[in-house]
Amino acid sequence: MAGRGRPRSFDRSVALTRAMDTFWRRGYEAASLTELTAAMGINSPSLYAAFGSKEALFREAVELYTATEGAPIDRALAEEPTAYEAVAAVLRWNALAYTGEGRPTGCMIVLAAVNTTDEAARRCLAEVRAAGNDRLRERLERGVRDGELPPDADTATAARFYTAVIQGMSVQARDGAGYEEVARVAERAIAAWETVTGGVPPVAAAPDVPAAPEPYATVRPAAEAEAEAGAAGSGTAASAARSG
């Protein structure tokens, strides 16, 4: 029998996945310690012992989100042969990811600390969003070097345009827009490619509401399955996500 006062053992990766889903669904400020510990299946002393503070837990949750939910986006930007196809894949994947069933809607990085009074949490997500915008710009600049986009293409503004569309899709998904509605927004943004970047897109027209971009399925930690099973039993943890 465990001695009195000994901390209860738990799987840290499972607890972190559950915390991520709670922050994603509730936001940084609205996610209370009571909600977090209930979702994670631990008590407050264990949370502080394992993660240090709510802010430190949030930062780790953000890192997990970017490593898992963001992986399909990174692969699209790295693997698609043209800037057009890369940006199109990012938009289409996000339309699917933001509206998937059995998961929080929208994007944690966009929504989790929009109106928070905690400056550290707000700054944390602002930095991640800025990094995402930079990755888009870098892919567009590669398109310039490859001759796909004109030498004078305004890659900074184009990246901000597509970032703004992606962030708007996230907000609309959180407000209840379904996949078809959000996917049509993505398609309109893709159709604006020549106006936004100065580049000429492929001749073939994209479908109005595309099928899921299969090559970019996210593989989240194995602990997620355990977290989902625990959530089903307790009713406190968010369901596992399947997409970033």
Structural account:
- Helices cover 62% and strands 0% of the residues.
- The radius of gyration is 20 Å and the shape is elongated.
- α6 packs antiparallel against α8, α8 crosses α9 and α9 packs antiparallel against α10.
- The chain is mainly α.
Main traits of this protein?
mainly alpha; elongated; disordered N terminus; disordered C terminus
Brief sketch in words of this structure:
By secondary structure, the chain is an all-alpha fold.
Can you tell me the overall shape? elongated
How far apart lie the N and C ends? 43 Å
User: How would you state the average pLDDT, rounded?
Assistant: 84
So how many helices? 12
**Radius of gyration from CA coordinates:** 20 Å
Biggest β-sheet, characterized? none
The residue ranges in which pLDDT falls below 50 over 5 or more consecutive positions are 1-6, 215-244
Strand residues, percent: under 5%
Secondary-structure class: mainly alpha
Q: State the total count of DSSP E strands.
A: 0
